[in-house]
Amino acid sequence: MFLPVAISIAAYGVVWGVLAGQAGMSVIEVALMSGLVFAGASQFVALDMWTPGSLPILSIVIATAVVNLRILLMSATLRPLAAHLPLPRALAAMFFVSDEQWAMTMAEVRKGSGSIAFLLGTGVLSWLSWMLSTLCGRVLGAFIDDPTRYGLDFAFTATFIALLLGMWKGRGDLVPWIVGALAAIATSRLIEGNWYIIAGGLAGSFAGAVAETIRERRHVA
């Protein structure tokens, strides 16, 4: 059941590892980021802003926080499963929450068999898959002299397109996506640096929240 998920995680984990090496990250830095952050989408965002020697720490923190806001909401839906646990253990279990584990756990909950053990088991396995694949990508990437020859220069863009399409839920997503894209483009033209990532994320999130509120009010009415 978990094997297809592990394979998909490993696939873009290797890509991230290769790109991390190209960005100047050491093997130790890759291990620490993958092990402590454990969030593919936000790690790709951080990688795009990674400039060795002069890291824009504040920009990276804000951008990754915006990207990971969805994890906060997903963790809230899992509260009934962790209600019987002491707070420290519940928080530790929530560390392993990601899109794949949340979706699988919620599917089990709907079947009446979801549990914190299932969430933690799939989460730990996902963490191991992500750690090993990113490290493999970093090590293997050191032997690639010309990334453009293998199309790896497009890997970052391709991965984000795949993640974006995977998150598509219907026409309701168009508004936040368009608003976020326009805000990012405008910011990149007006402000130097990587602030366009933060601006796009905040604008898209706000637009999505407003659109969802409007839909709910119409439904109630």
The N- and C-terminal alpha carbons lie at a distance of 42 Å
| Unreliable residue stretches | none
Total number of strands: 0
Fraction in beta strands: under 5%
Coarse shape: globular
- Put simply, the count of helices is 12
Query: How much is the radius of gyration in Å?
Result: 19 Å
H/E element string? HHHHHHHHHHHH
Assembly category: single chain
Class inferred from helices and paired strands: mainly alpha
Q: How is the biggest beta sheet arranged?
A: none
User: Helix proportion of residues, in percent?
Assistant: over 70%
The overall pLDDT, averaged over residues, is: 81
What topology does this entry show?
Layout: H1 3-22, H2 27-36, H3 40-48, H4 57-67, H5 69-77, H6 79-82, H7 87-94, H8 99-111, H9 116-141, H10 155-166, H11 174-190, H12 195-220
Please tell me about this protein's structure:
By secondary structure, the chain is mainly α. It is 75% helix and 0% strand. Helix 4 packs parallel to helix 12 (195-220). The longest helix has 26 residues, at 116-141. The radius of gyration is 19 Å and the shape is globular.
